[in-house]
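Section 5: illustrative case.
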């Protein structure tokens, strides 16, 4: 029945959604303390979110007004970073890792109110979750009472599984994430865990030599001796030895480091930048965090050596926003280096706010310029015109961590390990169906089988497939386990080495489902700037969702369109896992085309 009483309008709120509500004076003052330059847009957004857990409209307005950026553009930038929230989140947020290795370990059975996370980067102790910002994995047997001088492993993985005594001699994790929490009573050579297992890092260590042996904040006793030598050699000689060493960039593209430096060195400019890529947002990759957590001074020494050789006047280190411990230790080490008068060029540390594409070098530059995290067309290459229009060398953390040893020991020493084309060692993030998931250092060219057996302690179950190179990489059958870990051998079987992620899957894991997950990830992470990738990844996922209705010629054509037509590596390499699936798993593909799935992972309406 209709009511006949006159209706009263609800009183309208007088508070404007764009005016700061009372009680936020400090935060507004903090926003207004940023210099009025657009480059501070991302730092200001991160600052506000850190305080309020999200970005209310009034804060977006206040930041835009202060930095003189239109509100629509502030919104546009904020919405390009997956970790920035434009809606208020629930009071408690639980995120469950959906990375390939956590799924392999059963992480897909998530609680109804939990949110899926692409990767939480503690694969070695997975399945992992994050509860209100704190990383968690299944609790492990606690540490027994230990003498005061015992070294105790303390990295992001360990903190997720155990409590570490406040008075302990904390060192970075030696790569033995599987063993966490572990201790050493022989200076970090042998590690023990409460279940009685003893372990020593396999092989010859270079980058990880001091990790797990030294106080990360104090550094090794020899820290900065290479820098001293580099200064006495001069920039030209340092550049020459790095060029002769054949070091290639470890961020995934393997471009010769010396050649990139040469371009920046030869580009005249009063100001030159070294931009360090510590974004590391690729699922399954945690090597750079590990280096920053375990030996940040080696990394800083690498920065100073590179800056000397390039002639850099400024350094920006861009760290993944979720790598809290890595950032904390880097800042403490930097503080110490400053106190000791070692900082020869100013280093600014910037934080990211999520997204795989943010690690792409031109997206990184855009983010620092206060723009959306979207890649740029090249040329110009950053080494000619990058940050603020100046010549900019972009190098990965692991690339730079190699420099102190190269300067101290020379190019021939460096070339003694690895292959002629790709000398040196590589950090690999090994997770999934192995007994000892963790971080390992192996000479480039080491067969995948040796990595699984000698580093990983063997497979945990019968291996049915192996993911190499993350979402831009490939899926290989066990018959290719003798493939060498290097750029060309992996290319020859349709893969890439990428940043060094290796995830063996057991026979009961469906390879089609695994590739579908990688494609779904690429689709989610596509920044949408160019059509082949934005639309192509959607179509690709549709086709993989139901192979019964998929025309394989059309799928192959689509792969070509993405590979040739996409602006950046994300779209160009999104076809890699799909092509590898079609090439190496024809029986499984045919079975799915008939509507079957022997693993029972794929269902259709
Ligand atoms: C989608 C995408 C994501 C990337 N993510 C990273 C990253 O997280 N860290 C990194 O160092 N390089 C990443 N790269 C590679 C960088 O663009 C660049 O090649 C690298 O930082 C250069 O340093 P390097 O020569 O020392 O390897 C990514 C590339 C693409 C296409
Ligand atoms: S390829 Fe994809 S991620 Fe790269 S610019 Fe194009 S849409 Fe963005």
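Designed sequence:
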């Amino acid at each position: 029945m209709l009511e006949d009483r006159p209706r009263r309008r609800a009183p309208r709120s007088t508070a404007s959604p764009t005016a700061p509500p009372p009680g936020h004076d400090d935060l507004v003052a903090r926003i207004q303390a940023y210099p009025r330059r657009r480059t501070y847009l991302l730092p200001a957004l991160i600052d506000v979110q850190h305080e309020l857990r999200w970005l209310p409209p009034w804060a977006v307005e206040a930041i835009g007004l202060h930095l003189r950026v239109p509100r629509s553009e502030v919104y546009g930038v904020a919405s390009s970073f997956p970790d920035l929230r434009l809606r208020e989140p629930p009071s408690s947020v639980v995120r469950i890792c959906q990375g390939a290795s956590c799924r392999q370990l059963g992480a897909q059975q998530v609680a109804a109110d939990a949110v899926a996370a692409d990767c939480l980067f503690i694969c070695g102790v997975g399945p992992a979750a994050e509860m209100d910002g704190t990383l968690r994995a299944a609790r492990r047997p606690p540490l027994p009472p230990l003498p005061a001088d015992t070294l105790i492993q303390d990295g992001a993985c360990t903190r997720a599984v155990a409590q570490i005594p406040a008075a302990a001699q904390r060192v970075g994790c030696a790569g033995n994430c599987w063993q966490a929490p572990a201790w050493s009573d022989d200076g970090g050579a042998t590690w023990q865990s409460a279940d009685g297992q003893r372990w020593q890092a396999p092989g010859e260590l270079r980058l990880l030599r001091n990790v797990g042996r030294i106080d990360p904040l104090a550094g090794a006793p020899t820290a900065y001796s290479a820098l001293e030598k580099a200064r006495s050699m001069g920039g030209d000689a340092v550049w020459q030895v790095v060029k002769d060493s054949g070091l290639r960039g470890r961020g995934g593209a393997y471009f010769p480091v010396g050649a990139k430096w040469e371009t920046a060195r030869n580009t005249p400019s009063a100001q030159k930048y070294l931009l360090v890529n510590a974004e590391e947002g690729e699922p399954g990759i945690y090597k750079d965090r590990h280096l920053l957590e375990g030996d940040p001074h080696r990394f800083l020494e690498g920065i100073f050596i590179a800056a000397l050789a390039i002639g850099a006047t400024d350094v920006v280190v861009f760290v993944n926003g979720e790598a809290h411990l890595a950032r904390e230790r880097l800042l403490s080490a930097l503080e110490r280096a400053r106190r000791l008068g070692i900082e020869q060029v100013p280093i600014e540390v910037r934080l990211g706010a999520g997204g795989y594409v943010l690690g792409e070098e031109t997206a990184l530059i855009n983010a620092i310029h206060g723009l959306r995290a979207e890649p740029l067309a090249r040329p110009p290459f950053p080494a000619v015109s990058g940050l603020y229009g100046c010549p900019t060398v972009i190098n990965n953390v692991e690339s730079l961590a190699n420099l102190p040893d190269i300067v101290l020991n020379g190019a021939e020493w460096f070339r003694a390990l690895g292959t002629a084309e790709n000398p040196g060692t590589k950090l690999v993030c090994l997770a999934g169906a192995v007994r000892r998931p963790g971080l390992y250092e192996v000479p480039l060219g080491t067969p995948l089988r040796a990595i699984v057996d000698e580093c990983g302690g063997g497979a945990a179950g019968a291996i049915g497939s192996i993911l190499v190179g993350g979402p831009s990489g490939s899926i290989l059958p066990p018959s290719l386990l003798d493939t060498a870990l290097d750029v060309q051998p992996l290319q020859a079987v349709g893969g890439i080495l990428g940043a060094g992620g290796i995830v063996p899957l057991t026979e009961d894991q469906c390879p089609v489902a695994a590739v579908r997950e990688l494609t779904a990830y690429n689709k989610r992470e596509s920044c949408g700037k160019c059509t082949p990738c934005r639309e192509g990844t959607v179509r690709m996922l549709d086709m993989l969702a139901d192979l019964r209705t998929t025309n394989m010629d059309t799928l192959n054509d689509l792969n070509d369109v993405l590979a040739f037509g996409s602006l950046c590596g994300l779209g160009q390499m999104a076809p890699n896992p799909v092509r590898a699936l079609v090439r190496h798993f024809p029986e499984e593909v045919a079975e799915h085309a008939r509507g079957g799935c022997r693993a029972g992972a794929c269902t259709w309406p």
